[in-house]
Write a structure and sequence with these properties.
Number of strands: 0
Largest sheet: none
CATH class of the largest domain: Mainly Alpha
CATH topology of the largest domain: Arc Repressor Mutant, subunit A
CATH superfamily of the largest domain: Winged helix-like DNA-binding domain superfamily/Winged helix DNA-binding domain
Radius of gyration: 20 Å
Strand content: under 5%
Distance between the termini: 49 Å
Number of helices: 10
Number of domains: 2
């Protein structure tokens, strides 16, 4: 990651200096790309979403007060933009047995037969793909909270800062989302019997 931009660089960005803008992009890209990849279910929209995030950053750069690192400020814009994108998709399909591929079905059967302790041996990639499919059954808020808390392992306080939500909203949303994920997984497991 490039060093944090100085106040002078931020001032140059505000004036539209191309070199300063490139410097800011170089600094923020390593911070923003993981947020996009973890919060966007389909990677084919990754570049478009990155452009939208950077467009928002540059259009709102005058709002940046400098009281916090610019990476934190930009991260919040990135999380909220991803959240808006997920909300715009408004698709929360019910995941059914027919939506699973052969590896995911085999994974569930082995998980049931041999217990959860063998899950890591069975392949993290298959478990990750199955989890991503299960996450699509959640609302966009629930997806965001689960990704931030459980997959990225942020604290509740960090999630509150990233989303602008209160502690109770984050905790309740996470509780409901985890309950829905358990129910969806139980339905799939029942279908494999």
């Amino acid at each position: 990651m490039t060093p944090p931009p100085t106040k002078r660089v931020i001032a140059d960005v505000r004036r539209g200096d191309e070199n300063a803008c490139r410097s800011l992009i170089d600094h923020l890209y390593p911070v923003i790309i993981p947020i996009v990849r973890k919060n966007l279910p389909h990677r084919d929209d990754e570049e478009d979403l990155l452009q939208e995030i950077f467009a928002k950053i540059f259009s709102r750069i005058r709002q940046y007060s400098g009281s916090r690192p610019i990476a934190h400020w930009a991260s919040r814009i990135a999380v909220n933009t991803c959240y808006d994108q997920l909300r715009a998709q408004k698709t929360r399909p019910t995941l059914s047995f027919g939506d699973l591929d052969a590896d995911e079905i085999q994974f569930l059967k082995l998980k049931l037969a041999q217990g959860p302790e063998r899950m890591t041996e069975l392949g993290g990639k298959i478990a990750g793909e199955l989890l991503n499919k299960l996450l699509t059954t959640l609302s966009t808020r629930e997806q965001a909270v689960i990704r931030l808390l459980d997959l990225e392992e942020h604290s509740v306080l960090e999630v509150c800062k990233l989303t602008g939500w209160g502690t109770s909203k984050v905790k309740v949303t996470a509780m409901r989302a985890r309950r829905k994920l358990r129910a969806a997984l139980a339905r799939l497991e029942q279908a494999t019997l």
